[in-house]
Amino acid sequence: MNKTIYMDYAATTYTKREVVGEMLPYFTENFGNPSSIYSLSRVTKKAIDVSRDRVAKALNADSSEIYFTGSGSEADNWAIKGVALANRKKGNHIITTKIEHHAVLHTCEYLEKNGFEVTYLPVDKEGFISLEALKAAIKDTTILVSVMFANNEIGTIQPIKEIGKICRERKILFHTDAVQAIGNIPIDVKDMNIDLLSLAGHKFYGPKGVGALYIRKGVRIDNLIHGGGQERARRAGTENVAGVVGLGKAIELATANIEEKNAKLIALRDKLIEGLLKVPYTRLNGPKGNKRLPGNVNVCFEFIEGESVLLLLDDAGICASSGSACTSGALDPSHVLLAIGLPHEIAHGSLRLSLGEGNTEGEVDYVLEVIPNIVKRLRDMSPLWESVVKKGGSSNV
Ligand SMILES: *Cc1c(COP(=O)(O)O)cnc(C)c1O
User: For the segment 126-155, what is each residue's pLDDT rounded down to a tens digit?
Assistant: First the structure.
């Protein structure tokens, strides 16, 4: 088999041809700077407006509440730093979780070094926060709660509407990193009591290097990028017009018939999970069922290293990840797997396969043929495994 099997859609997706098609004229003939006044520029300004409307519609927001950014990470940074700095007089306390993406976690750590106090909520074995723990963590000085919609490593979908309700009742701003949720879960920012929401084009078949932040009307937030008057004077920098156009087209496609797309992904996901769990000493990370992202599979194979599995999978033409794209290559086990209570040695044996629109049942079958052999090969070389086999196969963890 020489065709590449891509199962790392949570790291990034391809850009759909249809999306690229809409983008192309904005590199070539429609290249005017949207801030200029001639008609060449009115075309690009109009294209950005159309895209803004599409994002607003996908979230049930108003177009005036959508701001384009250079990435999902920038949207997260802006939401958290911007709210923290603009509301400093009210308080300096922020609540988030231990399993956020680094774009949120490292931003919070930065704020801690600059006079803010941050509470990192723990999660249970499946990765859910406790609403009671959230309520208990709120103080008079709490200005912001930031909880991700769905986790990029283990697929856990948080009770966002309930979290939003608690924050709204206490008059605390609520931000959610919805980068993994867009296109997988229907989102209504009004119904879900969301004040700020981050998204990124390249996680839903749009281009890389473009994201957006929803900021509910009336939310106090400082600018992150200072300069010209773009994005209604809130985010400086000449617009990535083609990128914005691509993001708008992609979100329109991603939020159409979610149910139908999910049914296909869930069937593939559950087949993959079931097959992988037949490998001895394998555990599933994250929940089962409809509180798990439709395309997410994350397992730990005990007694081996996730990185070694990835290399052998690559030899077999399969693209996967050992956790998040940002941490693979690092020797530290995933902070998410540690937060759900896995010991270091088991967290090291993790494999994430994230499915998307390009995957087929045939590919799942092939992967299920290849993986058990890889795991066996690696275990046969593992001294830990040898001691387990000698002991008669009882796991000590
Ligand atoms: C990918 C991702 C990000 C970062 O988005 P970029 O556009 O790559 O900066 C943030 N949060 C989550 C949950 C992600 O999966």
Answer: 999 999 999 999 999 999 999 999 999 999
Residue 256, token pair as written in the block: 């159409």
Average pLDDT over residues 362-379: 97
User: How far apart (Å, rounded) are the C-alpha atoms in residues 330 and 309?
Assistant: 15
More confident residue, 211 or 382: 211
Q: What are phi and psi of 295, to 5 degrees?
A: -100, 5
Residues noted as catalytic: 326
Neighbours of 67 (CB within 10 A): 20
Of 118, 145, 113, the residue nearest 131 (C-alpha) = 145
| 282-284 and 117-121 strand pairing | unpaired
Strand partners, 211: 69, 200
Predicted pLDDT at 330: 52
Which atom of ligand 1 approaches the CA of 76 most closely? 10
Beta strands in 285-327 (DSSP E): 296-301, 318-319
- What DSSP letter does each residue of 3-69 carry, written as one string? SPEE-BTTT--PPPHHHHHHHGGGTTT----TTS-SHHHHHHHHHHHHHHHHHHHHHT--GGGEEEE
323 band by pLDDT with thresholds 50, 70 and 90: low
pLDDT tens for 191-211 read 999 999 999 999 999 999 999
Distance CA 239, CA 216 (A): 21
Phi (first) and psi of residue 357, to 5 degrees: -65, -20
Q: Residue 378 C-alpha to ligand 1 middle, in angstroms?
A: 32
Could you tell me the CA-to-CA distances from 325 to 101, 346, 351 in Å, in that order? 11, 19, 12
* CB-based burial label for 197 (10 Å; 0-12, 13-18, 19+): buried
The predicted structure's pLDDT at residue 230: 97
Question: Is residue 183 within 8 Å of 149, Cβ to Cβ?
Answer: no
Q: How many CB atoms lie within 10 A of CB 209?
A: 15
Distance 336 CA to ligand 1 centre (A): 15
For ligand 1, atom 8: residue with the closest CA: 72
Which residues are 301's β-sheet partners? 282
**Residues in the ligand 1 pocket, defined by CB under 6 Å:** 71-73, 76, 101, 103, 148, 152, 177, 179-180, 200, 203, 211
